[in-house]
Amino acid sequence: MMNRRFCLKTLTAIAAVAVSGLSISNYAAAADTIEVGVLHSLSGTMAISETVLKDTVLMAIDEINAKGGVLGKKLEPVVVDPASNWPLFAEKTKQLLIQDKVAVIFGCWTSVSRKSVLPVVEELNGLLFYPVQYEGEELSKNVFYTGAAPNQQAIPVVDYLMSKEGGGAKRWVLLGTDYVYPRTTNKILRAYLKSKGVKESDIDEKYTPFGHSDYQTIVANVKKFSQGGKPVVVSTINGDSNVPFYKELGNAGLKAKDAPVVAFSVGEEELRGVGTKPLVGHLAAWNYFMSIKNPTNDEFTKKWGSYAKAKNISGHKDKPLTNDPMEVAYIGINMWKQAVNKAKSTDVDKVIAAMAGQTFNAPSGIVSKTDEKNHHLYKSVFIGEIKADGQFNVVWKTPGPVKAKP
User: Fold this and answer.
1) pLDDT tens for each residue of 54-91
2) Is 44 left (phi over 0), alpha (psi -120 to 50) or beta?
3) Per the structure, how many domains does the chain have?
4) 29 pLDDT higher than 70
5) Which domain range does residue 184 map to?
């Protein structure tokens, strides 16, 4: 009778698990694992940038687990592919929070994907770590913005390019992908340029859709606009459109000395698919470059190289590259781990409180710190010049970390 009662109880528990959508193995593992959501496009126009962020998070999880996990439990990644489909980001977030019951989500690249996720994490009191520079003008209790705010990327770049050291730029082409991040960033930049005395006729603003591939007319117009003297192209083109854009620059013979392009969303990974020799001298602005020399970055790049080879990661097993969003993704998950250990809990509200003032020795060479109030990190700003090998030579940097002003 006792055995029969035990079996009935066990079967009831298993049935409850089945109804909830969890597998039996997940049920068994739930007690000694912490589920972590990984929300990056692994297909579609943004896969060129986001796939490697998924791999970076998985590398960090392996590293954390090898050192004993968090609160004595192993982290279990739940990887989903929102496929560069903005409404699907919201659906996948609901799945992660309701069905998979993840403690935290690391994900998104574009601001339109983040804004799709935002109401979901706020309604369900989830936690999102967002690893890419963005347009600011947003603060949420449920999001940590670990990439740059405009004053940690866009504004310092304009100041540099206007200076004698940066070439004394007079004319500005603001060229971006048609969505919230480029439009809002360019709205901020346009106002800032005008405050510096730049005339309306010296600003040319253009947008292309996601996945756009024909840049012949646009580059021809840039070339024509450039003839007015001391031009700069500020590019907020995102995703795989960067490949045809840079190829067309090369085809048109538009060199950095004619009209330097400074990109806010192009790093080492995006340049992989482009012949870089015609692009030598063009610029990018980030808070980290792979070429930065310091012991922490040496360790980070070697670690990534070994991981990419061991996991046979496409493109990286033979030529491992790191970039700014990878560094930020790595910082984010490690700061979350530290906050969980401090809070002694994965409870979202407790972790949010414990995140205030968290620090991490970043590969960029600074001790990155979470602001106590605004959920952003202090960051140094670097401007890098493209070299023939697809790496960047740092030509300018801020004296030290900059407080975010979102």
Assistant:
1) 999 999 999 999 999 999 999 999 999 999 999 999 99
2) left
3) 2
4) no
5) 151-291+383-397
Query: How many CB atoms are located within 10 Å of the residue 14 CB?
Result: 12
Same domain as 331, residue 282: no
CA distances from 9 to 4, 6, 30, 133 (A): 9, 5, 19, 51
- Whether 294 has a pLDDT exceeding 90, the answer reads yes
Hey, what amino acid is at 60?
A
CA torsion 178-179-183-185 (nearest 10°) is -120
Residues 138-189 have pLDDT tens digits of: 999 999 999 999 999 999 999 999 999 999 999 999 999 999 999 999 999 9
Tell me: do 41 and 102 sit in the same domain.
yes
Same domain? For 119 and 180 the reply is no
CA 50 remoteness from chain centre: 8
Using DSSP bridges, classify how beta strands 261-263 and 231-236 pair: parallel, antiparallel or unpaired. Answer: parallel
Please indicate, yes or no, whether residues 126 and 50 belong to a single structural domain of this protein. yes
Whole-number Å distance between alpha carbons of 76 and 101: 11
Q: Check which CATH number belongs to the domain holding 227 and give it.
A: 3.40.50.2300
Instruction: Find the largest Cα–Cα distance for the chain.
Output: 93
By the 8 A CB rule, do 363 and 348 touch? no
Assess if residue 74 is contained within a domain. yes
Average pLDDT, the chain: 91
Looking at the structure, do residues 131 and 182 belong to the same domain, yes or no? no
